[in-house]
Amino acid sequence: MNGKPSHDHSGLLAQVREKLPREELFRELAGLYSIFADPTRVKLLYALWESEMCVCALTELSGLSQSAVSHQLRTLRESNLVKARREGKQVYYALADAHVRMIIEMGFEHLTEDRQEETGR
Amino acid sequence: MNGKPSHDHSGLLAQVREKLPREELFRELAGLYSIFADPTRVKLLYALWESEMCVCALTELSGLSQSAVSHQLRTLRESNLVKARREGKQVYYALADAHVRMIIEMGFEHLTEDRQEETGR
DNA sequence: CGTTCATATGTTTATTTGCTCATATATTAG
DNA sequence: CTAATATATGAGCAAATAAACATATGAACG
Fold first, then answer.
1. Distance from the CA of B47 to the CA of which of A28, A83, B58, B116 falls in 20 to 30 A?
2. What's the Å distance between residue A9 CA and nucleotide C1 C1'?
3. Residue A79: predicted pLDDT
4. How many CB atoms lie within 10 A of CB B62?
5. pLDDT (tens digit, 9 = 90+) per residue, B21-40?
6. Integer Cα distance of B38 and B47 in angstroms
7. Which among B36, B51, B65 has the least Cβ separation from residue A2?
8. What is the pTM (predicted TM-score) of this model?
């Protein structure tokens, strides 16, 4: 194996291991965050924050192709972050719940507060 | 162009466009979230949540190679999510600030609450 | 000094992923 | 039914990336 260490931290390790959740949860968490890890999706989510919108409008707004938007909306749908509602030819998308807003908001806050901290360096 | 739509939503579009932040912010947001978008990094962050730890301990804990851990720690360092402190041969890592905790916590809450909601479907 | 332990880093590889292009489905109108 | 509009989807490609592997740096110690 790579670097089996010799200095002792078995006590700490055992203690931390106890508190760690099951491996699966880390994968799920990463999966959740990876949805927000793309500028296009973040923008779509942010737009939907303001108002429910049809694919057509989201396409114009994003400046991407309709296909690209549809693909991303699918990702968002399958993650239960947005919900779709058909009305005639159009399909209207909206945020699924308040959680999405909170997660985005957390990120915004972190970014802005970071900036304040970093001015002090 | 792809699908220049004909039905009207220019009013809504203009309104939403006004509220959208500059493009750059979406990229930054996505950048921030993409750090949490990997199971290994989430696990490392979660472990550091419990306690400051040296690379050696983190390597054992994660089950990955020392190299892999070091690479990920670098990513976390460069994003200002963790800070490093040298003490003799070892380097100890710790969470940079409370924000990291909050962001992870948000994710956890979303996952668990989602599960409750989904039982009703 | 040279050796050993702890960590960092450059390179390569395999996988993932976001987009484009072409095409399919769905709804409404004629 | 056929045409037109709105949206969805499958395939392929190019860019991003996480891990392996080899190697470099850095600290303590003889």
1. B116
2. 32
3. 92
4. 19
5. 999 999 999 999 999 999 99
6. 14
7. B65
8. 0.85
